[in-house]
Design goal:
The protein is of the alpha+beta class. It has helices at 2-15, 17-48, 67-80, 91-101, 106-111, 148-188, 190-198, 203-242, 252-283; strands at residues 55-61, 85-88, 119-124, 139-142. The mean pLDDT is 78.
């Protein structure tokens, strides 16, 4: 039975060599992209985590507010926004910061002639929510709300999802091509299959050549995907080296999964198509 499957499967491959090559390439491209995407996601994981980090937004209050008024304001905002962590920067720490950031203000800070507005810091995962404080009479200004870390994290996460989406669509198209090809071959050899069933051939004997005919392009696709992933990752790694970033390395597990995906995916699709065809034939 195995010899028959191999012989007939090889005959199908020879007769439909062009389709087999197209199927191999159609499978190799999305599998290769998936491997590269998975590798990039692993490489970008520390950056993607930044999208979930909190940000600190500085808020300047009116200098005429006394300590009790500031405390009431902080308590009120903390109660209204439980997701915020509101705290006041001590005056001495604010003076130290200003002297460190602006050394030319040191004389003004030491004489005590300067009136400094109270500085409030709000730690939140959504810095844009602090915009609700703008325009209030107690608030002089709201500091920058943009977070470079969060922006990088969102970009890294979006890139990973985009690569995954493109790979999924291409892989679905390749599997559909495999199903259509098997479907057409079944009808092209319909008379032969009917005769084989009439003489008592088992379904395993009938399906064997078709499974071989899709397994070989699938195996070739897995090998091409591995080669393509290695080339792409090497090119990306050279670019990251120029930028002074860590090298990108594709794991052996990812390469192994690519080969398995290339081999198993068309076999599963072919098996489903063959089973449906057998059910229809038996009902008729």
């Amino acid at each position: 039975m195995i010899r028959h499957a191999l012989a007939e499967g090889w005959l199908l491959l020879r007769q439909r060599g062009g389709v087999s090559i197209v199927l191999s390439l159609a499978l190799a491209v999305p599998i290769s992209l998936s491997g590269v995407g998975l590798t990039l996601n692993q490489w970008l994981a520390p950056v993607a985590v930044m999208s979930e980090q909190t940000s600190t937004v500085a808020v300047l209050l009116h200098p005429r507010m006394d300590q009790q008024q500031r405390r009431q304001w902080i308590d009120g905002e903390s109660a209204a926004h439980p997701e915020w962590k509101v705290s006041e920067v001590p005056p001495e720490e604010l003076v130290e910061r200003l002297q460190r950031w602006f050394p030319y203000l040191e004389d003004l800070m030491t004489t005590g002639d300067a009136t400094l507005p109270p500085l409030i810091e709000i730690v939140t995962a959504d810095p844009d929510s602090v915009t609700t404080l703008e325009g209030r009479h107690q608030v002089l200004a709201v500091g920058p709300r943009s977070s470079i870390q969060q922006s990088l994290g969102r970009s890294a996460r979006s890139l990973g999802w985009m690569i995954a989406g493109v790979s999924a669509v291409l892989l679905a198209g390749a599997l559909l091509l495999a199903a259509i090809w098997v479907h057409l071959e079944l009808y092209r050899h319909g008379d032969e299959i009917t005769i084989m069933r009439l003489v008592g051939a088992t379904e395993r004997t009938i399906r064997g050549p078709f499974l071989v005919a899709v397994a070989v392009p699938g195996l070739v696709a897995g090998a091409l995907a591995v080669a393509g992933s290695l080339v792409i990752v090497a090119a990306l790694s050279s670019l990251t080296a120029i930028l002074g970033l860590p090298a990108i390395q594709i794991s052996a597990t990812t390469l192994f999964l690519q080969v398995i995906t290339g081999l198993v995916s068309p076999l599963v699709v072919a098996g489903i198509t063959l089973a449906r065809h057998a059910t229809v034939e038996l009902e008729n």
